[in-house]
Design brief:
Its cofactor is [2Fe-2S] cluster. Keywords: 2Fe-2S, Iron, Iron-sulfur, Metal-binding. Pfam families: Fer2. The chain has a single domain, classed as Beta-grasp domain (Ubiquitin-like (UB roll), Roll). The chain is α+β, with helices and mostly antiparallel strands. Helices cover about 15% and strands about 25% of the residues. The protein starts with a strand and ends in a 13-residue tail after the last strand.
Length: about 110
């Protein structure tokens, strides 16, 4: 099982099952995470900024590549609804533009 830490959500640590998207793993903890399109890869509201462990994530999907080419996804960002953690550790943070108003970010 791989591990995922959200640094600016009180270092929330999430265990990610093989094949499970990062978004599904976060939701399984009961934590709210922005995802306006319903986890279909049609927007960028579920994006995360990867601080370390990018090499431990699945390859980019067509949706991520499309948004990256359009300038809506930075080189250090991934969509939580599209990627999985293949192995090891990944540390991320929630970018300010997609933070939920009722969550406490550090």
């Amino acid at each position: 099982m791989a591990n995922f830490t959200v640094q600016n959500l009180a270092n929330l640590r999430v265990n990610v099952s093989p094949g499970q998207t990062v978004l599904r793993a976060i939701q399984a903890t009961g934590t709210d995470w922005m995802h306006a399109c319903g986890a279909k890869g049609r927007c960028t509201t579920c994006r995360m900024q990867v601080l370390s462990g990018m090499q431990n994530l699945s390859p980019e999907t067509a949706a991520e590549l499309k948004y990256r080419e359009a300038g809506r996804l930075q080189p250090n960002e991934r969509l939580t609804c599209q990627c999985t953690v293949l192995q090891g550790e990944v540390t991320v943070k929630v970018p300010k533009p997609v933070q939920l108003p009722h969550q406490r970010y550090e």
